[in-house]
Amino acid sequence: MTRGPDARIGGDLLTIEGLTKAYPGVVANDDVSFTIRQGEVHALLGENGAGKSTLVKMIYGLVRPDAGRMTLRGTGYAPATPHEARGSGVAMVFQHFSLFEALDVAENVALGMENPPAMGQLAARIREVSEAYGLPLDPLRLVGDLSAGERQRVEIVRCLLQDPKLLIMDEPTSVLTPQEVGILFETLRKLASEGTAILYISHKLEEIRTLCDTATILRLGKKVATCDPRETSARQMAELMVGQTLQTPTRDAGTPGAVVLALKDLSVRSSNPFGTTLKKVTVEVRAGEVLGIGGVAGNGQDELLAALSGEARAPSGAVSLNGTAIGHLGPNARRSLGVLTAPEERLGHAAAPDMSLTENALLTGAIRENLVSSGFLKWRATEDFAKRIITAFDVRTPGPGHAARSLSGGNLQKFVIGREILQRPTVLVVNQPTWGVDAAAAAAIRQAILDLAEGGAAVIVISQDLDELMEVSDRFAALNEGRLSEPRPAKGLTVDEIGLMMGGAHDMEVAHVAE
Amino acid sequence: MDLSSINPVVLIASLMVASTPILLAALGEMVVEKSGVLNLGVEGMMIVGAICGFAIAVETGSPTMGFVAAALGSALLSMIFAVLTQLFLSNQVATGLALTLFGLGLSSLLGQGYVGIKPPSTPKMDLGPLSDLPVLGRILFSHDLVVYFSLALVLAVWAFLKFTRAGLILRAVGESHDAAHALGYKVVAIRFAAIGFGGACAGLGGAYLSLVRVPQWTEGMTAGAGWIALAIVVFASWRAGRILLGAYLFGGVTVLQLNLQAAGAAIPVEYLSMSPYLITILVLVIMSSSRGRASLAAPASLGRSFHASS
Questions:
Q1: A336 within a domain of the structure (yes/no)
Q2: CATH no. for residue A199?
Q3: How many domains does chain A have?
Q4: Residue A351 falls within a domain, yes or no?
Q5: What is the C-alpha separation between B224 and B221, in angstroms, rounded?
Q6: Domain ranges, residue A416
Q7: Mean pLDDT of A110-134
């Protein structure tokens, strides 16, 4: 780790030449070529749908290329299955973990290995390797009981046990606290210093600038550039990724108005047996203000949204709108008062997957947009409303008659957020507004949120993307095990301070001290 | 009522015979469900196994050939289910129900010429002096090969799932077929194998009914045994040991109520006849409800269709 990058980077490990893969109607990879060297941390950058996943699936033997060839350590490399890829020294940590919750850590590790030793020996080796890399793990625990960060350790340890020459990591930091990210980076640097090449897929530019030696940027299936991320600005890389000049969301900082939404000692038991109970959440949101709420997933975000939308009832005084107690009201009553919400799960919670966009527009817009008269639906008005959302928020769809399921994640998210914003909310609560959304769409959504606040609405943005929260929030608070920290002005907060607010220090301890 | 006419030694010995068909079918279904497939066609596969085994045993004069044919016939039938659900991604519940109806119809067609015939008798295992032991000899060492085979199979399935790599892969496929696919395991092929094994076990169980337990062929003779096998798998929390317990409990209550009927118990026959179903399910429900995590024992991918996205 102390050696410079040039000392550790060796000869060519994997050379990719002209790799092409087409699916019906879309070319996922078009003539992609680049080289990964030994001991190099190589970033693969690109928007959703740029072809990053298809490319690594070809390297890992899950997908066969239509054309092109790969050379691994001087010999031809064309894995037909992941087994062959692992046999050649290529290992992969998946974005959506490829773990089995009902099996224990050792069994999970064994499933990802070619010739696992007997279970007893394997458990000992897991302990040994995980300690050596500062990722302590108990081989006998069920994966279902582990946190997201610990689950990722299982995946990494599974790869390390096979002495990989090339380690592929697909969006590894999306579920980690800043402190956990720090630990992960130390592990990766240690690995690289031992000669392992790492192919690091991400769209978080600052991470890539701190960690990676080289970056290859893909756009619409084609390679657009290879650059040195330490000498290229994040903005330049983002523009290469998107292919256009990016607008950073902006607004004029106004002075916040009167308190609109007040939560006082809000405690709500979760409806999910594995959920988190909210404990005495107290906070005020003013007109024209954006309150950002961070925290690692599963610390009460879903429960907070449910308590605000009215899905979970609270004592009436615990939630008040303009001084009126509304805690006892259900979702429809709150909607008519102007408290609107957009939950995290697009398909199944925010939208009914198999219903058309028109029908989905009706589901939350019926009251405020006056789309029902004496029990009958006003289809024409509803369709107009849906069309207005589609136009105003640039939702790419053939028409409002198409099912919500048929839209891409980013487009559906624009529809869901637009549907609420066009209803002129007094208070808008959104959970993960840009999760899995490409950069251009995310920027549009953030701009819409800021415009709404500028128009005088109180907005709460719950998110796990800290960059996003720093961009849109006036004040920042963090959820940790159902408790909300004291909100602080977002301007000038450092990553360390945020990490402490999120309870990251606790995780640090777990990671550094052997269990 | 004359309870003294019930001989406990005979009772326990016949309990093992009565339980074997359900034990075999439930064990096979457990392996199928562990791989993440819900095959509700157990009843249909059992009865097809019953007539295949019966017909071949009568034609060849060899019960062994009958059992082999039963296993093959039901495995073949289960392949229809496998092709429909795994390759054509049809709904597993609907396809399983259809398989049961199809099996019941097919078996009565095949069995038309075999009503009222007596099959060749299945020989007892010759265990030498062990069979002459007092009490124990009668209970444990005086059965045919299939009873011992079914008990060995319980042990084999348990060990397979717990200790072998193939068993671990089978469980992994049932837990998360997407993750298993991402690691490079052949989900569909593994599920085909599991479905085939389940079919063969159900067939053996059916043949045991028509060749040993009854022994003759009548239409619809499985009388819901396949459904009980399905229920036992769920309430046994997908564990081989508990399946043995559930099956023997059901068989035991069945034999006991028949004895009570014969002894002229004052309880109406209808209540006695329903008692095995009721008591087995009650006991297993109570057992599985006592543990908080029991509901989590179900394979997480159970009943979901798998389609590789890439």
A1: yes
A2: 3.40.50.300
A3: 2
A4: yes
A5: 9
A6: 259-512
A7: 86
Every domain of chain B and the residues it spans? 20-126+143-234
Q: How far is CA A431 from the centre of its chain?
A: 12
**Is A154 in the same domain as A194?**
yes
B159 touches chain A (CB under 8 A): no
Q: Are residues A227 and A305 in the same domain?
A: no
| A274 shares a domain with A199 | no
Q: What is the amino acid identity at position B181?
A: H
* A248 within a domain of the structure (yes/no): no
**Which domain-ending residue is among A242, A267, A283?**
A242
Whether the pLDDT of residue A8 is over 80: the answer is: no
Residue A268 pLDDT greater than 60, yes or no: yes
Torsion angle of C-alpha atoms A236, A239, A245, A249, degrees rounded to 10 = -90
A97 CB within 8 Å of a chain B CB: yes
Query: What's the pLDDT band for B182 if we cut at 50, 70, 90?
Result: confident
CB-facing half-sphere around the CA of B198: CA atoms within 13 A? 35
Contacts with A112 from chain B: Cβ below 8 Å? 183
Report the residue of A88, A98, A145, A155 to disrupt the B interface, i.e. the one with the largest count of B CBs within 10 Å: A98
Confidence of residue B4 (pLDDT cuts 50, 70, 90): confident
A111 to chain B, any CB pair closer than 8 A? The answer is: yes
- Using an 8 Å Cβ cutoff, are A39 and A195 in contact? yes
pLDDT at B310: 44
Determine contact: B193 vs chain A, CB below 8 A: no
Instruction: Looking at the structure, tell me whether residues A447 and A332 fall in a common domain.
Output: yes
Which domain-ending residue is among A214, A242, A270? A242
Confirm whether A475 is domain-assigned. yes
Statement to judge: residues A448 and A495 lie in one domain: yes
The DSSP H or E segment spanning A223 is strand A222-227
Q: Give B124's strand partners.
A: B144
Angle at A77 (CA atoms; ends B187, A39), nearest 5 degrees: 105
- Cβ of A63 and B310 within 8 Å? yes
Strands of A231-348 (E only): list them: 259-268, 278-286, 290-294, 319-321, 324-325, 339-342
Are B184 and A57 within 8 A, CB to CB? no
Q: For the segment B275-297, what is each residue's pLDDT rounded down to a tens digit?
A: 888 887 788 777 766 554 445 57
Residue B290, amino acid? S
Q: Which of A99-108, A492-501, B297-306 has the lowest mean pLDDT?
A: A492-501
